């Protein structure tokens, strides 16, 4: 009789130990030294003034980012149609720090993803809004405050509290009904 209960008891104990070992521990400290949006905006405003680009950008409260509103920060492109959430888009982008350091660069494949899917892939929300402002062949630069991107988290080439400049060139766009 004892053998009947011993095996299930061992199995339950092993499962509990296995699951407990997979749980997060509090050994890593939480990111608590991030900048507020107000602090980020002060840094970005100073950068834009110093670099003579203040007239090229405008802050958008809805997206929480600065958008290019005039050349060279905005080149509208050809045509009248901008991508919608369901549009399949292809674009080239570069990500820089305010000091010009290149952090990332890539070109997406035409028709591989809907615009709305990029937010789910880790892109800051401002990316979605930026691409809806240009037509095929156009480009736009946006500056995303650290508080609306990666905050005080770091990456391989990404220092904590980094304000990021994304530059996008829309290479292709197709409606979701093709």
Notes on the protein architecture:
Belongs to the FKBP-type PPIase family. Keywords: Isomerase, Rotamase, Signal. It holds the Pfam family FKBP_C. One of its GO terms (molecular function) is peptidyl-prolyl cis-trans isomerase activity. This is Peptidyl-prolyl cis-trans isomerase. 24% of the residues lie in helices and 25% in strands. By secondary structure, it is of the alpha+beta class. Strand 1 and strand 2 form a beta hairpin. It starts with a helix and ends with a strand. The radius of gyration is 23 Å and the shape is globular. Strands 1, 2, 3, 4, 5, 6, 7 and 8 form an eight-stranded antiparallel β-sheet that branches. The longest helix has 21 residues. It has a single domain, classed as Roll (Chitinase A, domain 3), CATH 3.10.50.
Looking at this protein, list some descriptive labels.
178 residues, alpha+beta, Chitinase A, domain 3, eight-stranded antiparallel sheet, 3 helices, 8 strands, 25% strand, PPIase_FKBP_dom
Q: Span from first to last CA? A: 66 Å
Low-confidence stretches: 1-28
| SS strand fraction | 25-35%
The fold-level CATH name is Chitinase A, domain 3
Oligomer: single chain
Q: Give the structural class.
A: alpha+beta
What is the number of E strands? Answer: 8
Main beta-sheet annotation:
8 strands, antiparallel
Order of helices and strands: HHEEEEEEHEE
Please state the average pLDDT score. Answer: 80
Shape: globular
Residue share in helix: 10-25%
CATH class: Alpha Beta
Count of DSSP-assigned helices: 3
Would you identify the CATH architecture? Roll
The gyration radius over C-alpha positions equals 23 Å
What is the count of distinct domains? Answer: 1
Pfam families: FKBP_C
EC number: 5.2.1.8
Keywords: Isomerase, Rotamase, Signal
GO molecular function, one term: peptidyl-prolyl cis-trans isomerase activity
